[in-house]
């Protein structure tokens, strides 16, 4: 059997996956952050990304249902609270719906999850199943795309504020809050993976899990590009003009 890499070597391997495969390199993000998206392309992104936001706490609840260590459950619970909200924190889902309203979408329509692209559903549902069915190590490792998220959030905030009239502190509060929330999650998750991936086989499993998650994120953007940039919207998906606020539809 091959010996396990050192923690430092293994962390470098994980970070290299992000450098090579994270979805910040997808051309849709260049288009969005550079101000080149049409209003309907932005709306399609908001609608489909909502399905991912909606599913993250479901994914985390599935993970926690398999965790027998109360310390791990207690630490992981904050991820659900960050998205679903608490008495003192409105949560990421409500912040995303505020973004939806800012771009002219009816939040009730977005929350209904009508018109989601098939590829979005397949990719996100596959991630939920992965976390539910795979080992705890693989489930935690898949979450480590958060290592690479701060840079894309910073670029997104800057680009949207520069190029789009809807962008302000209220509509972009989801991304601003993730800059504060994600570091604590990823610090714990990374250390947990480094501690528990103590054989070469486990390190390979964790690396493959992170690659899988990058594929989940990339596939969603491929679908958006094909449907709303190239104009090949699948049957039954959101059509420009649907689900708009009356004040924005005229």
Automatic annotation (TrEMBL):
Its EC number is 1.3.3.11. Pfam families: TENA_THI-4 (PF03070). One of its GO terms (molecular function) is pyrroloquinoline-quinone synthase activity. It catalyses: 6-(2-amino-2-carboxyethyl)-7,8-dioxo-1,2,3,4,7,8-hexahydroquinoline-2,4-dicarboxylate + 3 O2 = pyrroloquinoline quinone + 2 H2O2 + 2 H2O + H(+). Pathway: Cofactor biosynthesis; pyrroloquinoline quinone biosynthesis. Keywords: Oxidoreductase, PQQ biosynthesis. Belongs to the PqqC family. This is Pyrroloquinoline-quinone synthase. It comes from Sagittula marina. The lineage of its organism: Bacteria, Pseudomonadati, Pseudomonadota, Alphaproteobacteria, Rhodobacterales.
């Amino acid at each position: 059997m091959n010996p396990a890499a050192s923690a430092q070597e293994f962390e470098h391997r994980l970070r290299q996956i992000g450098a090579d495969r994270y979805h910040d390199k997808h051309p849709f993000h260049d288009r969005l952050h550079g101000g080149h998206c049409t209003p309907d392309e932005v709306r399609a992104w908001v609608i489909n990304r909502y399905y991912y936001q909606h599913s993250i706490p479901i994914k985390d609840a599935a993970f926690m249902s398999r965790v027998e260590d109360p310390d791990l459950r207690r630490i992981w619970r904050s991820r659900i609270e960050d998205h679903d909200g608490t008495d003192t924190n409105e949560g990421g889902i409500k912040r995303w719906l505020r973004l939806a309203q800012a771009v002219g979408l009816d939040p009730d329509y977005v929350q209904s999850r009508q018109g989601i692209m098939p590829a979005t559903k397949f990719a996100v549902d596959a991630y939920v199943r992965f976390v539910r069915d795979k080992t705890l190590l693989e489930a935690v490792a898949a979450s480590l795309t958060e290592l690479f998220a701060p840079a894309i959030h910073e670029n997104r905030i800057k680009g949207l504020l520069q190029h789009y009239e809807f962008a302000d502190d209220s509509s972009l509060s989801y991304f601003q809050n993730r800059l504060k929330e994600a570091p604590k999650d990823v610090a714990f998750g990374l250390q947990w993976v480094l501690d528990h991936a103590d054989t070469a086989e486990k390190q390979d499993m964790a690396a493959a899990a992170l690659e899988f998650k990058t594929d989940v994120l990339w596939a969603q953007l491929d679908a958006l590009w094909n449907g709303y940039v190239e104009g090949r919207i699948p049957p039954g998906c959101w059509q420009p003009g649907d689900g708009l606020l009356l004040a924005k539809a005229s």
